Amino acid sequence: MMDEMRVALVTGAARGIGRAIALALAQPGIMIYINDVANLDEAALTQKGVEDKGAKARVVTFNVADAGAVQQAVDEIIKESGRLDILVNNAGITRDNLIVRLKEAEWDQVLDVNLKGAYHCIRAVSKPMLKQRYGRIINISSVVGLMGNPGQANYVASKAGLIGLTKAVARELASRHITVNAVAPGFIQTEMTASLPEKTRAEMLAQIPLSRFGTPEEVAQAVVFLASDTAAYITGQVIHVNGGMLMV
Ligand code: NAI
After folding, report:
1. Cα(115) to centroid of ligand 1, in Å?
2. Which of 19, 20, 90, 141 could join 216 in a cystine, given CB atoms 3.0 to 4.6 angstroms apart?
């Protein structure tokens, strides 16, 4: 890979897409900090999988919605590893409800984790990245952030917001060789989508030209590309991994 050790932080990496991202980034020469706030048994399995691929790994438990906890964790990473090259803002939640019934708490919880959490992490890593004149920031948005989806006003707003955040920060940090991009997955087979009613799943499938849900690994490959040195000339972009469901 490269001469120096690379250091990555993946949020919400205990399971699902975050775990697949940590595993796909794993190779000798990289240290991966696996963040989560729950599912800690699963986080330990992610760590084992990453180490099995020859990378170093550590689980860092914090809530991305807690600004102080994020800053403290990033400070500790810098103290321990001396740098932070790759941030993947993957932690995300849903609290679905139709707009007429959408409670303020449901709005706040989703925005606090999905959008504000990314802001906290980006703010905390940008200082060390500016100093080292290198960085890769990848935000996990969603196809619904571009298309909309009934019953998900809070989630859709957070995922559309992430795209705006991506573009603004990409412009701010570009002069120091820090790229900031988003990946917008379509419907991916994870615990998050497993709970969907059968009728909804069938309706979703009918909209996907490739006629299947995607896998976490397929999302992870787009992240690995954006995180690589090869992607140095790509910033402020959204890569769509959605089976053709939305073509932009
Ligand atoms: P998941 O629910 O399987 O995993 C998310 C992980 O994030 C969980 O382990 C959870 O504990 C963690 N997390 C939640 N809140 C957190 C917080 N405040 N701080 C730290 N960690 C936290 O979800 P999945 O499906 O793997 O989704 C990952 C990301 O991909 C999310 O941002 C989601 O919105 C996005 N996405 C998922 C799609 C899908 O079809 N599964 C489609 C498009 C986007």
Report:
1. 12
2. 20
Q: Among this protein's residues, is 155 annotated catalytic? A: yes
Instruction: Tell me phi and psi for residue 232, to 5 degrees.
Output: -60, -25
Q: Whose CA is nearest to atom 39 of ligand 1?
A: 188
Residue 224 backbone dihedrals phi, psi, to 5 degrees: -60, -40
Looking at residue 3, what is its pLDDT?
A: 60
The whole-number average pLDDT for the span 156-166 is 99
Domain extents in the chain: 7-241
State whether CATH 3.40.50.720 applies to domain 7-241. yes
pTM above 0.85, yes or no: yes
Nearest CA to ligand 1 atom 18: 63
> Residues, the chain, total?
248
Residue 1: what pLDDT? 41
User: Shortest CA distance to 56 belongs to which of 8, 96, 115, 106?
Assistant: 8
Sign for the CA dihedral angle at 184, 188, 191, 197 comes to positive
Contact by Cβ (8 Å): 65, 79? no
Pocket residues for ligand 1 (CB within 6 Å)?
A: 11-12, 14-18, 35-39, 63-65, 90-93, 113, 117, 140, 142, 185, 187-188, 190-193
17-47 pLDDT per residue, tens: 999 999 999 999 999 999 999 999 999 999 9
Which residue is associated with the tokens 């910033």? 235
